[in-house]
Amino acid sequence: MRIVFMGTPDFAAASLEALLASPNQILAVVTQPDRPRGRGQRLQPSPVKMVAEKAGLRVLQPQSVREESFQRQLEALAPDLIVVVAFGQKIPPEILELPPYGCINVHASLLPRWRGAAPIQAAIMAGDAETGVSIMYMDEGWDTGDIILKREVEIEPAETGGSLHDKLAKLGAETLLNAIRLLAEGKATRTPQPEEGACYAPKLTGESLLIDWNRKAEAVERQIRALNPYPGARTYHNGTLLRIWRGKVVRGEGGEPGQILSLSKTGIVVQAKDDALLIEEIQRAGGGKMPAGAFLNGYSLARGDFFRRDE
Questions:
Q1: How far is residue 15's CA from residue 13's CA, in Å, rounded to a whole number?
Q2: How many domains does the chain have?
Q3: Could you read off the pLDDT of 14-40 as tens digits, one per residue?
Q4: H/E run at residue 263
Q5: Same domain, 37 and 64
């Protein structure tokens, strides 16, 4: 199958690597323009671009896939199929209708649950017992197309956003190859998504990263795991931004939400709505991650202080 691949982050790079190891022909790779990153704000290529260049593939980086010049480039390539994985731009009808086999997408959830930009984090934060990947035909909606294949995985009790990302990236790549094989053999099915059970996982924003200590401790603990290793759950202490990386639910002692109940080498106990959270790993803005006991050696906290959602 002659394929144009469209994707940007590490999650998409796993699918591109799987395609490179398959009999399929990759005509070109489309990814987002290089972005400034790091302290020096130097332009950095996407993970997908790095994989593509290493393999000697043609790389296209349009500012917008709606550009006529870019669409003419796609037409000239004449792909049988376009594969889209976490690309980062909405695909217009002109592209969706271009290849004979259509455009298919790898999505990191069991659709229609958790359509949208952050399905991995949303599944953990919601306390879902399982999630998975869906391979779908793309349409003009956001993750609303007919399903070709689904595969499930269990969400482990200590699952983080990072560990689940890696599981689903691997599973998504494997399932994508199976879906392409079915397409080539004329055996791919189309199962419309039911609207029942549909929900959205919007893009993570600054507000969604902040811990609300008025929530139950188990919800706070899930939020911390979901946002680890990136971008991190956040709270404020006397105007200082802190990132919380690891914690566990412990019995509360009757303090107010956000109030520090105790400090020790094992961690910082903070009251939530019901029980409390023992913070085991923490980071001050501009500093490094460290065990809470070590953090207390260089940062002044006192019993009775409060962690808050704002400065």
A1: 5
A2: 2
A3: 999 999 999 999 999 999 999 987 777
A4: strand 260-264
A5: yes
